[in-house]
Write a structure and sequence with these properties.
The protein has eleven helices and twelve strands. It is α/β, with parallel strands linked by helices. α2 crosses α3, α8 packs parallel to α10 and α9 runs antiparallel to α10. The structure holds ligand PBG.
């Protein structure tokens, strides 16, 4: 047969309008969530070296950033806090005077339509850098749960719209759900970091928040990169515990897991385009080795194509501005 006479896929790629008409996966700023690193103080903007364009910021600047995000079309932010003092139990995590709690209230006052999500974990707050309290040589799962619930409640009290536990403790979603309900926040949704892998791609984040574990690593609570079926069990566990949104993290090296989760579960699915994924693209872009903006949009598109409904990304504002230009 003469193939030219029949099917010819290039027929549908002939010009920009047609390609645009047939776009299968259109990114939208409304599905981006912009993470921010908040510190105590005022007027602080400290660049995070491995994450060009991302800074540690004080509460006043976080308000400006949330507004800048909103202007670009990004309506949601995810807050991480960096305390002045870390201790063994991460006690600052639930303090109403800490940067995250303060930033939540300040952002909700200045920009009420911004949807403020808080990361709930202890690793930024513990002096040993683990995501829970330590007993012997390991993290004490059940002893950590009430502390995570307290942190989540303190965020809700400050006005957080949603909380997102990332500690990978078994039962963390249930503990937080119960805590929120008992404290009168039954309408505050929980986004579980359900399938979170022990990943080298968190490297830049750990520099950003100074949370590298001082001994051992996170492999007793975060998943091994080899595990795909186990990820489904993690997600099911979060759903049983009442998670409103589930998550796969990181995104780029786990697109298969995102795809599988999106086909298997009807719960909204988030994917976290983590710090190392951001840094890889930014560093290559800065070296002139690739077109940073195009590579970034391609990465975000791949995450959407895999089936994510929400994408947590440090590129949110830049990407939204590129989308707005058309
Ligand atoms: C833990 C947490 C981490 C990230 C988000 N929440 C780090 C870790 O588990 O070590 C990583 C995010 C990123 O790399 O962008 N609280």
């Amino acid at each position: 047969m003469n193939i030219d006479q029949y099917s010819h896929l290039r027929r549908l790629r002939l010009n920009e309008t047609l390609r645009d008409m047939l776009n299968e996966n259109r990114l939208s700023a409304s599905e981006f969530i912009y993470p921010m690193f908040v510190v105590n103080g005022a007027g602080v903007r400290t660049p995070i070296e491995p994450m060009p364009g991302i800074d540690q910021i004080s509460v006043d600047i976080a308000v400006e950033e949330a507004q800048r995000a909103m202007e670009s079309g990004v309506k949601s932010v995810l807050l991480f806090g960096i305390p002045d003092k870390k201790d063994a139990t991460g006690s600052a995590a639930s303090s109403p005077d800490e940067a995250v709690q303060q930033a939540v209230s300040a952002i909700k006052i200045a920009s009420p339509d911004t949807y403020v999500i808080t990361d709930v974990c202890l690793c930024e707050y513990t002096d040993h850098g683990h995501c829970g309290i330590v007993r012997g040589n390991d993290v004490d799962n059940d002893g950590t749960l009430p502390l995570l619930a307290d942190a989540a409640i303190s965020h809700a009290k400050a006005g957080a719209d949603m909380v997102a536990p990332s500690a990978m403790m078994d039962g963390q979603v249930a503990a937080i759900r119960e805590g929120l309900n008992d404290a009168g926040y039954s309408n505050t949704p929980v986004m579980g970091y359900s399938a979170k892998y022990a990943s080298a791609f968190y490297g830049p984040f750990r520099i950003a928040v100074d949370s590298a574990p001082q001994f051992g690593d996170r492999r007793t609570y975060q998943m091994a990169p080899t595990q795909a079926r186990e990820a489904m069990r993690e997600i099911e566990a979060d759903l049983d515990e009442g998670a409103d949104i589930i998550m796969v993290k990181p995104a780029l090296a786990y697109l298969d897991v995102i795809k599988e989760a999106s086909m298997r579960f009807d719960t909204p699915l988030a994917a976290y385009n983590v710090s190392g994924e951001y840094s890889m693209v930014a560093a290559s872009g800065q070296a002139g080795w690739l077109d940073q903006d195009r590579a970034m949009m391609e990465v975000l598109t791949s995450i959407k194509r895999a089936g994510a409904d929400l994408i947590i990304t440090y590129s949110a504002i830049t990407a939204a501005n590129i989308l707005a230009k058309g």
